[in-house]
Amino acid sequence: MTIKLRNGIFLAPFHPLDEDPTLAIHRDLELMEHLDRLGYDEAWVGEHHSAGFEIIPSPEVFIAAAAERTKRIKFGTGVVSLPYHSPLTIANRIIQLDHQTRGRVMFGVGPGLLPSDAFQLGIDPSVQRDRMVEAIEVIVRLFNGERVTKKTDWFTLDNAICQLKPYTWPHPEISVASSVTPSGGKLAGKHGFGMLCVAATQAGGYDALGINWKIANEVAAENGRAMDPEKLRLVGPVHIAETKEEAMANVRYGYDKWATYFANLSPLNVNQDPNEDPLERGIREGTIVVGTPDEAIAQIRRLQAKQGEFGAFLQLAHNWAQWDKTKKSYELWARHVSPVINNTNSARIDSYEEVKGGREKYMGAAMNAVMQTLQKHAVDEAAKKKDAAE
């Protein structure tokens, strides 16, 4: 592999209904500081307005606070639901964040995932993907400093222009969400955007990943460009501990609440065996990783074998375990998974093995040097005694 795999997380976030929301949000901010200290590269923050679990309605507000608490980690909107906002106000908010973070913001976009969000805003879910395309094409023009006049059935811009140019040249990186439908892949291919595959390890999402990446490459070629695998990000759930047994015990704390939330939202669970433990099924199917760092490494290798190279793996922030165990999981990834995936220790291992293989030569030379020093010392002492006697 020639691309260094970046570490990141995808923070929806998920918080069960029996926790204080204020404490939950502040714990999410503390998590950003923890990841920054561990050297994680990216954190993507979602936008949701209903269903109770995913309680950040403005990723921009969260990112502004998180950026002040951190030094190097980059933040992405994961994602801004474009049909819910005016393209001009979105562009202005992202440019402001770009300046405030001095270039540490990335712009993730999507049509909006929860139908209940769209219904609350009086938006027909069937038009969301078309509106996403309309919005991002205008936003790119605004990023580029153009004046835009455009009237659609859902927004009007009259000679609109952003007051500020982006801090990042020519503008912050843009990544489009891709799950099941090909709309994200088509949009990424047409404009050269990155892809944020939010269901990369799921059975349905896993197949769609390959299909949508293929579509993105085909559309890119039609538009005289090539997709950059370094801008392909895959999302998957992971919790690791020092032993498999410990990891399984950890996630029993909160997995069922998370799984029940998803079961109530997703029609994909209707044909699954109700007698099988969903956690065990997810592990068996390879959808999730609950185990040791070695099992996390195997998941990445499986994705690389299927997909080829990609730029970042984003662990889905799920809060299955208690807070201290959650932080430990992210630490174990940084300490033991990332170095293997990126071959970080290859030079150290080569040096270690070379020295071990030449042990007799090196130890022989060292012992010979010691003996020579001792002999020289003995000669010098004898000479001193002789001089003193004379």
Model description:
With 390 residues, this protein is of the alpha/beta class. β9, α7 (203-222) and β10 (232-240) form a beta-alpha-beta unit. Strands 1-2-3-5-8-9-10-12 form an eight-stranded parallel barrel, surrounded by nine helices. It folds into two domains: 6-346, Luciferase-like domain (TIM Barrel, Alpha-Beta Barrel); 349-389. It has 14 helices and twelve strands. The longest helix has 31 residues, at 359-389. The termini are far apart.
Summarize the structure.
By secondary structure, the chain is α/β, with parallel strands linked by helices.
Task: Write the topology of this structure.
Elements (H helix, E strand, L loop, with lengths): L5 E6 L9 H18 L3 E4 L13 H11 L4 E4 L2 E2 L5 H14 L4 E6 L4 H6 L7 H16 L4 E4 L4 E5 L13 E5 L4 H9 L2 E4 L5 H20 L9 E9 L3 H8 L3 H11 L12 H8 L3 E3 L1 H15 L4 E6 L5 H19 L4 H12 L1 H31 L1
Parallel strand pairs: 1-2, 1-12, 2-3, 3-5, 4-5, 5-8, 8-9, 9-10, 10-11, 10-12
Antiparallel strand pairs: 6-7
Helix pairs in contact: 1-2, 1-12, 2-3, 3-5, 6-7, 11-12
Characteristics:
2 domains, alpha/beta, TIM Barrel, 15% strand, 390 residues, 14 helices, single chain, eight-stranded parallel β-barrel, elongated
Using the CA coordinates, give the radius of gyration.
Answer: 27 Å
Main beta-sheet annotation: 8 strands, parallel, barrel
Number of domains: 2
CATH superfamily of the largest domain: Luciferase-like domain
Helix content: 40-55%
Tally of strands: 12
Strand order across the largest sheet: 1-2-3-5-8-9-10-12
Q: What would CATH call the class of the largest domain?
A: Alpha Beta
Estimate the strand proportion: 5-15%
